[in-house]
Fold each of these.
Amino acid sequence: MRIVVVGAGPAGMAAARTAADAGAEVTMVDSEPEAGGQYLRGSARFGHSGVTHLKNTEAWLVEGNTLHLRGPEQLRFDALIIATGAYDRPLPFPGWDGPGVITAGAAQALAKQGVTLAERVIVTGTGPFLLPVATALQDLGATLVGVYEASSPARWLREAKAITANRHKIGELAGYRKVLPRLETRTAVIAKHGDRVTVAKLDSRWRPVSHRTVHADLVCVGYGFLPRTDLLPDARRTNDFYDVDERQRTSVENVYAAGEVTGIGGADLAEAEGVVAGAAAAGLNPPAKAVEAVRKGRLFAQALARAHAVQPGWQTWPAPDTTVCRCEKVRLEDLTDATGMRELKLSSRVAMGRCQGRICARNAAELTGVPFDGQRRVIAVPIPLGELAALPEENKS
Ligand SMILES: Cc1cc2nc3c(=O)[nH]c(=O)nc-3n(C[C@H](O)[C@H](O)[C@H](O)COP(=O)(O)OP(=O)(O)OC[C@H]3O[C@@H](n4cnc5c(N)ncnc54)[C@H](O)[C@@H]3O)c2cc1C
């Protein structure tokens, strides 16, 4: 039984180990030089005699039971597990594309390497991820001007079931106690010009009700995460996350998905889903402990999605000349009236640049009211034409 796992984060590593323990021949592919994914960032020591780990290797297409890799190389599989994770979502405001504004994920990745880019920093966005980022920056000596959470914590009062099932998450809050005094809720950065940063108090729909100016060198922006679901453009999804059954099967035959591609719930849920997917792909019944961890973790993930859902009032933050698509320099006023994403792209060039809409497509869809059609690309990562030309003839149709 040949199992291929794409992604070596908490989900992919757990899936690969579990499948190899069950006797499958496993290959784990990841674009990074070391295993660990976003959370562990190279600090994980992955080793298993039954797993071949292909490092620095990007997968770009699933075609039947073949996975295409940059190179170009191909891997045949009996079962494929996709564990490609997520990336963080910025929202545009005047100045967000200038110096001194980065995503919260980028700030965290740099902090894990001991780098902070500025003295006075702000972390703004929504969701619990803001707290570890703020803590990491403060631990590196940055002055935390503010941690601005756009949502209201009162939304969590409706989520008693999820909280009861995941009490350990409350304990995790204690680790962030040093930054809690800087936390302001229903608040967001809505403009930055030089070191002058406009901070607004928001209503429940995130429309500004008042604002003030503070001074900071760096603003770290994170409005939740978007899944990297481009490898399976035809799989059934909800809100762009893959739909999976209780064995982590997607709607595509012999293809499983685990971790943040199925919903955002943290590294422990990703790992539990990896165990379930690895066992199921190898033909075993998933361990009851992992199944239960997935059940509880999903309650938390669903509560998180509700409590920190991006609200439409953000669409009042950009000015007409605010950049929406950084790659193609498309401003809000350049977005055309369109009925669908394809027409919007062709008429304004939004989402047509190097990032292929990963950063801007959802924002552009919300700003114009066109339905967001998800991350559906035939080729999942940018590849040179030479690599396509080098494919065997039978793959070129
Ligand atoms: C930038 C960032 C920083 C984060 N930092 C933290 C943190 O500090 N603390 C925390 O609790 N949570 C953090 N998170 C949330 C964290 O990602 C998850 O909780 C957890 O890592 C999810 O695990 P995963 O296995 O689903 O995906 P990931 O850990 O994201 O792993 C996915 C892996 O797939 C690889 N990959 C993706 N596409 C391809 C492809 N086409 N070909 C080959 N390889 C591919 C990626 O390189 C990555 O190594 C962070 C998220 C992001 C986006």
Amino acid sequence: MTGPDDGRRGGLSRRRLLGALGVGTAGVLAGGAAGGALGRATADDAAGAPAPSPTDAVPFHGAHQAGIVTPAQDRLHFVALDVTTDSRDELVQLLRDWTAAARRMTAGQDAGEVGAVAGERYAPPDDTGEAIGLPPSGLTITVGFGPTLFTTADGVDRFGLAARRPAPLVELPAFPGDQLDPAISGGDLCLQACANDPQVAVHAVRNLVRIGAGVVSVRWSQLGFGRTSSTSTGQDTPRNLFGFKDGTANLKAENGSALDRFVWVGDDVEGTAAEWLRGGSYLVTRRIRMLVEPWDSSSLDEQQRTIGRTKGSGAPLGQRAEFDPVDFTTQVDGEFAVPETSHVFLAHPTNSGTAILRRGYSFVDGSDGLGRLDAGLFFIAFQRDPATGFVQVQRNLRLDAMNEYVRHTSSAVFACPPGVRDADDWWGRALFG
Ligand code: HEM
């Protein structure tokens, strides 16, 4: 229902709010276009394939790396690493060895050809063994290259890669309210292992780290226990630790035209130096602590107005069902149903002017010594350019009512190369070749 209201509530008109956010007419038009792309993609959804069995293998070879638009698995082990060698040859050999091990593990095999128990009695096994007998469990392993792989923070071109750094691959800017811990931020390389069995994901990261001994060292890592997004129309929408459905309005795997527009690095990359990244994507991670104790003592109304959706069905406020379109003009009792400071209002393409593929996981890392859970969302987003993806949305969230309940404690950005094509290909071949 739309009332005679002129668009004002609480003294702030929508036009003025958008102006205050730096989203002018052009931005809104861009947002409209973004929404249009998402809308068109809904038509693509009709061809959506059913979700595979949770124990199946996900193909390792392809034009794009698995683990990006792959229907989000239930568990995550993410690790960021620093390269400790100065030898380019050692780094290249590691990427070749990692590719071979990832190819095997994603097929449900041991990390090495000999395996955990069939090898030489007096030598360490080439697999650690904890996944013996477990199915592939949808394991995907996705690799990414951080800005510091190309040029160190003090400007050193360690591996002769500086000239091949794509222009968008720069450290993320600071955002108001950031409480980042450098010890769990950044990294030269990352490995994202997702699976439907936590032991399979942990086994994958453990073995890749083992193979990398002497060449890389772990900088930080994060376990995630429940996907917070659906990335396929075949999946149910999960709930995050605020108890809300998360991923309803996400980009989806079946959404080809929108993925090309917002997720994959296309043919228009600037200059030939970064051609190696075509078909790849940029990965942004943010460890976001959720202050669950104050959230749990806030009213249902406050929670719903903070998100902009109902807690039960996930419907946009003022609508009836989860997948009803968000309509910012709908009014209830003379007030806009979706508050202008709600998360959905500010994150929606109409107002942010862009879209990202969210693929995050919940975490609980124990408690903080003050009787509070150290819990939250390990936010993962894929986009074709961080500046017009995560950074643009996050800037638009600066008036987000949710900010009262969240703290960003870690941050990283990586360029994920395209997929490994066949048995002779390896992660980063186009970059190092
Ligand atoms: C702990 C932090 C966060 C929580 C609990 C959270 C939760 C949610 C929820 C419940 C929704 C509505 C359901 C949906 O459409 O998926 C949503 C939507 C969304 N969120 Fe977040 N979110 C968080 C952080 C972020 C961040 C950091 C970004 C990006 C900078 C972001 C971007 C989005 C976008 C783009 C949407 C879809 C909006 C739309 O098109 O309607 N979220 N989020």
Amino acid sequence: MTQRTCAACACDCELDAQSIKVKLGGKTVEVCCEECAQALKEADSAMAARPHGES
Ligand SMILES: [Zn+2]
């Protein structure tokens, strides 16, 4: 059995059909609610917007 938990708040609640998939860069993570999805997206874009991030 695979137990999936929220990638944002690290709560112990299991994700079920109500889980929300969030695409960050190349990978997809699952969170428990819209707020967690938003938090992950903001954290991701903050990373991307980092100055001197040229490769
Ligand atoms: Zn959550």
Amino acid sequence: MSPRTAQTSAPILESLSNRWSPRAFDANHEFPEGALRGIFEAARWAPSANNVQPWHFIVARRGTEGFAQIAESLVGFNQAWAGSASALLVAVAETADEEGNARPWAHYDLGQAMAHLSVQAQSEGIYVHQMGGFDPAALKAAFNLGENQVAVTVSTLGTIAESADHLPEMLQERETAPRERRPLEDIVTIAA
Ligand SMILES: Cc1cc2nc3c(=O)[nH]c(=O)nc-3n(C[C@H](O)[C@H](O)[C@H](O)COP(=O)(O)O)c2cc1C
């Protein structure tokens, strides 16, 4: 059990309790060919409203032009740490069908697919850190996204560096800070 393992009030799957969002990625790690297939397969099998599967994923390995384009879209302090990840992933919601009919659950469905992906990743020793701090318009232009395609998150994928010393001090602290959640009693109502 790592110090970052979730302290839970009931047993949960190890790939859930061990999952967390690091910022100190190993800049020397590279994914071998095919290494990300399992995580996308897990996303593919997520449930979605009417089984519409309103998601699309753009992934780029460090060192590629695509990686640079995604990294450039990051804003604020995300620029300071995300570049050492082995790959960057854009999660895209398809918010309407080809006739323009809205898909009201598209963001929800994409979130479920990302949850599947991140839990599968954890079980394979791959860390995922999702981010909302990026410029969606920049990604829309860079990757020619359609009218109904919205970039919702960018994620880093990779393995953890041996040390977080290379991060700005504020981020080093976050790397080891206790993990917190609202208590179960606050988030669950047992209706009688
Ligand atoms: C939709 C979404 C947006 C997020 N945006 C950022 C971000 O821009 N930068 C960042 O460093 N972390 C970001 N995070 C990571 C959260 O801060 C993190 O998941 C949360 O603090 C819980 O920590 P844990 O994942 O380690 O359990 C985001 C997470 C989600 C799901």
